[in-house]
Amino acid sequence: MRHLSTVLLVTAALAGCSSNAATGADAKAQTSQTVTQREIGQAFDMKIGETISVGDLRLTFRGVEGDSRCAIDVVCVWAGDAEIALKIEEGRQAAVAALHTTLEPKKTEWNGYTIALVSVSPSRNSTKDIDPADYRAQLVVTR
Q1: Which of 38, 59, 120, 123 could bridge to 82 as Cys pair (CB 3.0-4.6 Å)?
Q2: What is the DSSP annotation of 70-113?
Q3: Three-class SS state of 60
Q4: What is the pTM assigned to this prediction?
């Protein structure tokens, strides 16, 4: 009886592991995301974590690395700056670029493409922090 209980326990554990393990195709389906195609020369907005395809490029907005922009409800002597991290991929090549709203670099060159940060929204407010999910980066890609 003790042997049967051990066999059943091991079988149940293995069955549980195999039902949670994803096959290669399943894993790819679980991690794939919808990639929106955008036009070269047309400005577009991206949210954090979103991937956009422009020409042969895949761009992923990884996050806002810093945001010292002047809040809309105060008077500042300097406009401040927002910095984003943007992953750029073409074929098997990939890199992460830091782009700024006020400081340099505001744009980067990649295999004949120019990727420029137009703006970061929403505007800051001195009494409320921006939720990362609310950030949008407006970019334009030219050739």
Answers
A1: 120
A2: PPTTS--SS---EEEEEEEEETTEEEEEEEESSSS-SEEEETTE
A3: strand
A4: 0.75
